[in-house]
Design goal:
- The complex is a heterodimer.
- Chain A is an all-beta fold.
- Helices cover 0% and strands 52% of the residues of chain A.
- Chain A is built from no helices and 13 strands.
- Chain A has strands at 4-7, 10-13, 19-25, 31-38, 42-51, 54-57, 64-66, 76-78, 87-94, 98-100, 103-105, 112-113, 117-121.
- In chain A, strands 2, 4, 5, 6, 9, 12 and 13 form a 7-stranded mixed β-sheet that branches.
- In chain A, strand 4 and strand 5 (42-51) form a beta hairpin.
- Chain B is mainly beta.
- Chain B is globular, with a radius of gyration of 13 Å.
- In chain B, strands 2, 5, 6, 10, 11 and 12 form a 6-stranded mixed β-sheet that branches. A 4-stranded antiparallel β-sheet of chain B has the order 3-9-8-7, with no helix packed on it. In chain B, strands 1-4 form a two-stranded antiparallel sheet.
- Chain B starts with a strand and ends with a strand.
- Chain B contains no helices and 12 strands.
- Classes of the chains: A mainly beta, B mainly beta.
- The interface between A and B is medium-sized, with 23 and 22 residues.
């Protein structure tokens, strides 16, 4: 298994340009998410998806769009890049829900992270 | 609303000494707590988790963490630090979403 794969590793954009950050996982994980990492801010959740066809907003969704047409892929789109979007972006996924005593449980599964995309917007 | 705090931006420890990286949390229900480590130019890697049961949780690379409900803390510990433990460490809490602390940079001095 390749795990969580992010492309590209580095990208430089001019203000106003658009681009898509790719994320793919081959572990059949239902849950996928995007975080941005900024110095002194830790990781902040942008968008997440609990399964194909379902997406939801995280802490900092403005300026970003996502879609989830397949279980494997969860692309992040910047429609009009701004310097404030200069950051390192991480995609993460989590194994499917397990069943404990008839109850569907997902909370105890750790996230699997990709190696990140470093984006600079000038 | 859930939150997690790591009060120290950086921790310096001499090699061979015990280390502690602090984390406190706030959640409305039962906490699901995690520690992750990040090496340069890499994504985060899972170290250990607390869901329920014993308050002392053991994880990867000799790390352990102690859950203290009364102090709402989940400090990461290791009895004897290695230079290779130098990295960025994140505490995380899961309520409805997974929220990360701001990270603590651990420097192990040879």
């Amino acid at each position: 298994n390749a795990g969580v794969t992010q492309t590209p590793k580095f990208q430089v954009l001019k203000t106003g340009q658009s681009m898509t950050l790719q994320c793919a996982q081959d572990m059949n994980h239902e849950y996928m998410s995007w975080y941005r990492q900024d110095p002194g801010m830790g990781l902040r959740l942008i968008h997440y998806s609990v399964g194909a066809g379902i997406t939801d907003q995280g802490e900092v969704p403005n300026g970003y769009n996502v879609s989830r047409s397949t279980t494997e892929d969860f692309p992040l789109r910047l429609l009009s890049a701004a310097p404030s979007q200069t950051s390192v972006y991480f995609c993460a996924s989590r194994p499917p829900a397990t069943s404990e005593h008839g109850v569907r449980v997902t909370a105890n599964s750790p996230l699997h992270f990709g190696n990140g995309t470093r984006l600079t917007v000038t | 609303a859930q939150s997690v705090a790591q009060p120290e931006d950086q921790v310096n420890v001499a090699e061979g000494n015990p280390l502690t990286v602090k984390c406190t949390y706030s959640v409305s229900g039962n906490p699901y707590l995690f520690w992750y480590v990040q090496y340069p130019n890499r994504g985060l890697q899972f170290l250990l988790k607390y869901i329920t049961g014993d308050n002392l949780v053991k994880g990867s690379y000799g790390f352990e963490a102690e859950f203290n409900k009364s102090q709402t803390s989940f400090h990461l510990k290791k009895p004897s630090a290695l230079v290779s433990d130098s990295a960025l460490y994140f505490c995380a809490v899961r309520d409805d979403k997974i929220i990360f602390g701001k990270g603590t940079r651990l420097h192990i001095l040879p």
